[in-house]
Model the fold of this input.
Amino acid sequence: MIGCDVAEGLAPINDKHKHGDYSSIDVLDRSGYQVAHWSGHVAPDDLGKMLNHLGRYYNNALLGVERNNHGLTTITKLKDLKYPNLYMETTVDQRTQKRTKRLGWLTTTKSKPLMIDHLAALLRDADAGICNLDTVKECQTYVIEDNGATNAQEGCFDDQVISYSIAQQMVLKLPRRKININELQYRSPGKSAY
Done:
């Protein structure tokens, strides 16, 4: 599974952060363990090309791109490249019961607490599987504000926290694999087992 936070292209806030925010990509295995990470500055369409190559390298991984802001450009590039396994969100209108499908992960005031709370639970239970030190450092500067919102501390970034959280959501969305009982190598217990 791959989670991606696409940079919003925000203006720099000070000399330390002259390039604004970063795009960030996390690759997780089926159990949620981080197997690859990238963070940097790249145009949203070029990010789509990178994700296409990365996703195909990792067996057409389920790819969750945050569709907020410039993420739509990245998703459009992935569609143009015919990437075969993009995350698709389905919503149901409560009044009409009409289903709407949209590509990508939308981070909202409803979905962000779910993904951040899930990450917090993984961290608390020592089950997060984070291997990248920079991601760990961003988690340490990620705070709950007085109004209940969660963000990076002032002067810090949260791009890696978001991409990792999205990737963990992709782990939850992945269909569980059925195991054929014949694939398991059971041994018949001997008489001593009875």
Summary: The mean pLDDT is 87. The longest strand covers residues 34-40.
